[in-house]
Specification:
Length: 217
């Protein structure tokens, strides 16, 4: 573990700072309080397809994390690797110690990555990270939004600050998905909107927002 701490840690992201997946890995690293560098790639110039990057990351996607000579892609894998490579008590715990709580956080993360495609298409993160104007809310997107809010109400009972006993990457991922509704003026229950805004007030997230065209609302 001492060797792991001494090795260079680099997070690769995209230059527009709109990816919710780079966002997740960035927030996890910041919350872990481990020093790292953020390197941005131009997707328009296909820098992520260059062999020196694509061959090492296997998938050629962003984000990817380089830790010394070790490379890992996919944001959820990065989140979990960072948790295990920099464990408590030396670093803040990111995933709950209780296996059931931990499983629930991972369930929420998996749901957010695999579902809700119509909502992601109708309300991309560029509408608030870059200030782009949103398009029409399709019937499919409304159905996705209703599903998101229904699941959120179930996994986040009233008065609960986080998905588990402490902040986790799942909270950051859920908040950014909810902001697709909140920041575009779409229907969202007040308590859920307040929760998403409270998560977005965390210093780790504010540091990400400072890199975007974000304006406080």
């Amino acid at each position: 573990m001492i060797r792991a701490m001494l090795e260079d840690l680099v997070l690769y992201g995209s230059d527009h700072y709109t990816s919710p997946y780079v966002f997740s890995a960035f927030v996890t690293l910041k919350e872990k309080k481990v020093p790292f560098r953020l390197e941005v790639l131009s997707l328009e110039k296909k820098e992520h397809e260059r062999p020196e990057y694509a061959d090492r990351t296997y998938t050629g996607k962003v984000p990817a994390l380089r830790h010394g000579d070790f490379w890992i892609a996919e944001s959820s894998a990065i989140d979990e690797y960072v948790e295990e490579a920099f464990p408590p008590p030396a670093h803040p715990r990111m995933y709950p110690e209780d296996p059931r709580e931990r499983a629930r956080v991972r369930m929420v993360q998996a749901f957010l990555r695999s579902d809700l495609v119509p909502l992601r298409q109708a309300r991309p993160t560029s509408t608030f990270f870059l200030g782009e104007k949103p398009g029409p809310m399709t019937d499919a997107a409304r159905s996705s939004a209703e599903k998101l809010l229904r699941v959120t109400a179930q996994v986040l009972p009233a008065g609960q600050a986080f998905l588990a006993s402490t902040f986790s990457p799942g909270d950051a991922d859920l908040a950014v998905m909810l902001q697709r509704l909140v920041l575009n003026g779409d229907p969202c229950p007040d308590r859920i909107a307040r929760w998403a805004n409270a998560i977005f007030a965390r210093p780790s997230i504010r540091e990400w927002l400072a890199k975007t065209a974000w304006k406080d609302r």
